[in-house]
Amino acid sequence: MSSETLWELIEARAAATPDKQMAIDESGQTMTFAKYRERCEVAAAGFAGLGVEPDDVVTWILPSTFESLVLAGALSRLGAVQNPILPIYRHKEIGFILEQSQSTMLVVPRVFRGFDFADLAEELTAGTDVIPIVVDPELPGGHPDDLPPDETGPDDVRWLFYSSGTTADPKGAMHTDASISAASDGMQSGCHIGPDDKSAVVFPITHVGGLVWLFNSMQTGVELLMVEAFDPAGTPQWLSDHGCTCAGAGTVFFQMYLAAQRALPEGERLFPNVRIFNGGGAPKPLTLHGELMDTFGAPLLNGWGLTEAPIATMAAVDDPDDKLAATEGKAVPGTRLRVVLDGEVLGANEEGELQIDGPMVCKGYLDSSLDDDAFVDGWFRTGDLGMIDEQGYVTITGRLKDVIIRKGENISAKEVEDVINTHASVAEVAVVGLPDDERGELACAVIVPASEERLTLEELGSHLAATSLSKHKYPERIEFVDALPRNPTGKILKKDLRSQFS
């Protein structure tokens, strides 16, 4: 099913399969597509009553719950610009985003994972025109008859997704309903999702991939298995009990599924209905596809993309095993990829920067000064190093960007370095990502000490806790060197550090 906008998709799906179950959560609550549409309209009327108008920017931070799905649909009905933020962000990042995006409203849970978001919202909006809304647990409601007509177009900017990228401040990528729908189409091209599928939503719904699944649910009728907070001890079995067929969503989750299966008595199957392990966002071991096939009999379907261009490549269910193990699939339909080095477009199996021209690419950054570096002749520069073989399969080999990808989330090395450098015992520091089976990468601080005193990891954690840096960005490892390796122009050779300490 295809349509112009998310709201049109919601209406079309509710009309086509009104009684089909759309989602279930861990409490046993269920929701049909017709009920979803109804709840979205009630919430839309509630937010309209609070002053939300078309093109207003609404920043929201909610876990992967029914309320988050309804909020996305409600704001789509109103033609607002949605700015979903990952729940790992804290005061520094959220404050910057609220100001740059000129948000009119901040929607948060009261408490999630032990953190008081209501207090954070109150602090960040005090003295501003931003309206804080605490979902505890209900969304605002109203009468749908009072709603204005829906006049959103598919190419209107309707989404802001922020990524830390390689700079200290987050970067806001401007997306449309059409670009997010195109990302869903790309995923669909490889995964072949249908109304009989049940997909695990085990990562933050506020990630761009979470909203891709909302679009895909409207397009295909797939049921969403909503997990508010992943629990390695209980979540895999819950997904199994509810017939999970699409077991996303990345390397760290796949490894936990394998561990959960190995912990079962011999002969018991964790995922008897699983069809695919779909994911991306982090490096994968070459052995992972084989392990999943041997253990569950289902393939690993990885895709590759960025916040600015989600799902540009996708592995397919009929790809050969060697390609599923070692590559990120091919460019999705309607998308062109090229490999460039020093301004020259390279041929097959040559390594360079991957660039994208496709319908899932964002319209640019909210800070338009970033666009000149991000786009060249209409192609988006990903900053990722890779190669494309003769058959079109893409292999990611590294990154031009100085960013660490931990559990699928970007960490700006420069931002962490800037904070560590304020410690009196640090003369210089370089933060690099090192391969890690659990996280994909871990952050390692390579420090030149200012004296004979050696900073411990605990002391570094205490220093960082006194700043506004989010905890997920803290280094998990420290190494000490007499001097950082540099090239003739003085640039630190982080590649050498990664090689030395991996």
Number of helices: 15
What is the strand tally?
A: 27
Low-confidence stretches: none
Fraction of residues in β-strands = 25-35%
Can you walk me through this structure?
This protein has 502 residues and is α/β, with parallel strands linked by helices. Among the domains are: 6-173, Rossmann fold, CATH 3.40.50; 403-501, ANL, C-terminal domain (GMP Synthetase, Chain A, domain 3, 2-Layer Sandwich), CATH 3.30.300.30. 30% of the residues lie in helices and 27% in strands. It has 15 helices and 27 strands. A hairpin with a 2-residue loop joins strand 6 and strand 7. The model has no long low-confidence stretch (mean pLDDT 94).
Summed up:
The protein is of the alpha/beta class and 502 residues long. Helix content is 30%, strand content 27%. The protein contains 15 helices and 27 strands.
Question: Strands, helices and their partners?
Answer:
Layout: H1 6-16, E1 21-25, E2 30-32, H2 33-49, E3 57-60, H3 66-78, E4 81-84, H4 91-101, E5 105-109, E6 111-112, E7 115-116, H5 117-125, E8 131-135, E9 157-163, E10 171-176, H6 177-191, E11 198-201, H7 208-220, E12 223-226, H8 235-241, H9 251-262, E13 277-280, H10 288-296, E14 300-306, E15 309-314, H11 321-326, E16 330-331, E17 336-341, E18 344-345, E19 352-357, H12 371-374, E20 375-376, E21 379-388, E22 394-399, E23 403-406, E24 409-412, H13 413-420, E25 426-436, E26 440-449, H14 457-465, E27 477-480, H15 494-501
Parallel strand pairs: 1-12, 3-4, 3-5, 5-8, 11-12, 13-14, 26-27
Antiparallel strand pairs: 1-2, 6-7, 9-10, 14-15, 15-16, 17-18, 17-19, 19-21, 20-21, 21-22, 23-24, 25-26
